Amino acid sequence: MRHIALHQITMTQDGPAGLVRFAAKAGLKKICLFTATPLTEDGQQMFAIVDPSEKADFQSLLTDHDISIINAEYFPIMRGIDIAQYRPALELAAELGAKRAVTHISETDPARIADQLGSLCEMASDLGMEIGLEFTGFAKGCDSLEKAVRLHQAMKQSNLKIAIDALHLFRTGGTLEQLKAIDPSSIGYAQICDGPHFRKSDDYFEEAMNRMIPGEGMFPLRALIDLLGAHVDWDIEVPHFASVPHFDAEDWALQAIAACKTLLE
């Protein structure tokens, strides 16, 4: 069975350090976490990040719990932001052993997308990392599988790989038939979750942040898994931020892990 990673937004309690400890307790070997994060409207960090000043302690924590990082987030191509400002967070991710860094494309100018994404890929390559290109309905510069494939082909960067998030695939109009036509080697990782329907939408933020346990919704996850090669890294991304009385975050994450393991066996 392939190793699967637990994404930080599936288990946000106690930040990245808590994620490491919980993943190890749950029998996992890999995680996805934040070394950079967008700011909220009031200037706060959206998610807890690894504190650069505690790098050595965090490295020891990873080693002690036999945990490695497949994805470090989150390095979006956005209007008004120069990719160069991501260098410290990208270097931190590399020093912690992250396999890749994740980007979304909010910028819509094709020339600037090519320039900034090219620079990000080169910066990551110098650090021995891949770049994961994740298409989402939120990021209008790359908001579909079709756009992601075109951009990947145009960039011709050997360390640029496409990400397949089940929710973003099906909620932006993507299909398994489209996926079948893609060169399997262009896909680097996939994120597994479930959802209640396939309706295409320009505003599905609420559902994206409150996903369903794999196997409890309508997404054809078994067929999706069968389409992707053994080289693909799998990431459990099943956040639940809705206000629910007596919600147990650890129990929720354990349910998500068990469901993903069942599907991937």
UniProtKB/TrEMBL annotation:
Keyword set includes Isomerase: yes
Pfam families: AP_endonuc_2
Keywords: Isomerase
Domain of life (superkingdom): Bacteria
Tagged with keyword Nucleotide-binding: no
Record-linked InterPro entries: IolE/XylAMocC-like, Xyl_isomerase-like_sf, Xyl_isomerase-like_TIM-brl
Gene Ontology molecular functions: isomerase activity
Xylose isomerase-like TIM barrel domain boundaries: 21-234
Alphabetical list of PANTHER family matching this protein: BLL3656 PROTEIN, HYDROXYPYRUVATE ISOMERASE
Protein name per its UniProtKB record: Sugar phosphate isomerase/epimerase
Organism of derivation: Parasphingorhabdus cellanae
